[in-house]
Specification:
binds glycine, Creatine Amidinohydrolase, Chain A, domain 1, 2 domains, six-stranded mixed β-sheet, 19 strands, three-stranded antiparallel β-sheet, binds manganese (II) ion, alpha+beta, Creatine Amidinohydrolase
Length: 456
Amino acid sequence: MSSSTCFSNFADFTHYQTRRQQVLEQMQAQGGGIAIIPTAYEMTRNSDNFFPFRHDSYFYYLSGFTEPEAVIVLIANASEQRSILFCREKNPEREIWEGFRFGPTAAREHFGFDSAFAIDTLTSTMPDLLGDARTLFYSTGRDPQLDARLHGWMEAVRARSRSGISAPATTVDIRELLDEMRLRKDTSEIALMQKAASISGIAHTRAMQIALPGRYEYELEAELLHEFRRQGSQAPAYGSIVATGANACILHYSSNNAQINDGDLILIDAGCEYDSYASDITRTFPANGKFSEAQKTLYDIVLASQQAALDCARPGSRYMDGHHAAVRVLTQGMLDTGLLDKNKTGNLDEAIASGAFRQFYMHGTGHWLGLDVHDTGSYRETKKVDDEKPYRKLEAGMVITIEPGIYVRPAEDVPEQFWNIGIRIEDDILITADGHLNLSRDTPKTVADIENVMKR
Ligand code: GLY
Ligand code: MN
Ligand code: MN
């Protein structure tokens, strides 16, 4: 059985051409050279079945091309700037079984490359392209198979040294260029991320409305997947977490097979991918449609902590400011509710400094979001200040998640009314020129909103 490629819902490929041009110019500014960016491999699942194919995000960012077995080569030197695509040949026989392939001629035209060749010619062509390139822009270690082939091509170039041809003397990790670009989303990316978040919001609402004690976690997962696909999303952006009761305290819970009990909270962390862009939303809601007093108390603490982090989501804030703001509100809430015992942990500042809050909040407050759910890009500045690299400042066009939580595992010194409550609230936040835009704003979030959509 074959894998399938996912086709784009959008047909405008000029964005990809513009990005390739930006990379070429950065390469030129560094003295020129050659860049090699492969897509992902098809992976066997079992027997002759493949996992659904998902292209490599860097490759897609520069091409929009979703077929497997493809490599982008960019060349920047004194005499030319050129972008080349290597891809599968057309193959009428295989296309009967597996579906359409562009083939080099149509792919070159459709995706705006300067030239395109059959992937089978990569090995015979690369030594010529590598010869006399000053710098190799490539990400070593990500693709051991290609690393080995590249090694062979470099040796082939070095073998020509007597005719005056030399291999690239330096290697720059191409991700240094691409990560910085991917961090700042352009308008086409923002539109796709808004679409992904909107679909996921509808899916979360649907799951809230179908939830009932007695149903199973996987029934809610099925509702999410149904809505994702129904709305044109190609796949979930990551494995959906549907965790009822104590399962909500397992951060990466994935079995989704437990029965839902009356009185449980249900934590759903799920987001669709739309045209390769991820959404990542968490909501926590009561199985029976009504929060208990204990659940509501902790829920409102998490919600207030998220608001504190949201207040930091604007240009000029440092990446970690939101986390620190959320931790302050969460820790104060832990002290107020007796989750933390003041007599043992001391006051707010002491409970933060000692890390006592980590008993109930043990993860970070977010991450970059984009083509990958945990998107690429450094969280810190590149230059050291006082022997440390400060967290980078947020800029318009960056997208982050904000996802504080509280997870209460039973323990003797923890008030029993809170045992097994796990709550996380996660939204997808675009930094704008004057603040932020919550891309997942339509997903019910306050106690009142959630109880309202769950009314039967
Ligand atoms: N769903 C993965 C995360 O929230 O980071
Ligand atoms: Mn998530
Ligand atoms: Mn997340």
